[in-house]
Amino acid sequence: MLVLTRKTNQKIMIGDNIEIELLSIEGDQVKLGISAPKDIDVNRYEIYKAIQKENSIASKRIDIKKILK
């Protein structure tokens, strides 16, 4: 893991097309702005994990015979 220190309005680049800017620090909250191409999903970690769980459940094979009984 790379750990960086940034001040308000400073940026981090990921590759050539993902930009992360530290917008503000208020108490224990940090506000980030993320600019990325539209084909790259940007989600909070907990939303990402929920999507992965739902996709896993949806992809499991269903035995129709058991459902119809």
TrEMBL record:
- What's one Pfam family here? CsrA
Q: Where in the cell is it found?
A: Cytoplasm
Q: Mind telling me which GO cellular component terms the entry cites?
A: cytosol
Q: List keywords of the entry alphabetically.
A: Bacterial flagellum biogenesis, Cytoplasm, Repressor, RNA-binding, Translation regulation
What's a Gene Ontology MF term here? Answer: mRNA 5'-UTR binding
Top-rank taxon, per record: Bacteria
- UniProt keyword RNA-binding, yes or no: yes
Which InterPro entries does this chain map to?
CsrA, CsrA_sf
User: Mind listing the GO biological process terms from this record?
Assistant: bacterial-type flagellum organization; mRNA catabolic process; negative regulation of translational initiation; regulation of bacterial-type flagellum assembly; regulation of carbohydrate metabolic process
Cited function: A translational regulator that binds mRNA to regulate translation initiation and/or mRNA stability. Usually binds in the 5'-UTR at or near the Shine-Dalgarno sequence preventing ribosome-binding, thus repressing translation. Its main target seems to be the major flagellin gene, while its function is anatagonized by FliW.
> PANTHER family annotated for this entry?
CARBON STORAGE REGULATOR
Subunit organization: Homodimer; the beta-strands of each monomer intercalate to form a hydrophobic core, while the alpha-helices form wings that extend away from the core.
Similarity section? Belongs to the CsrA/RsmA family.
Query: What is the official name of this protein in its record?
Result: Translational regulator CsrA
Q: Which organism's genome codes for this protein?
A: Halolactibacillus miurensis
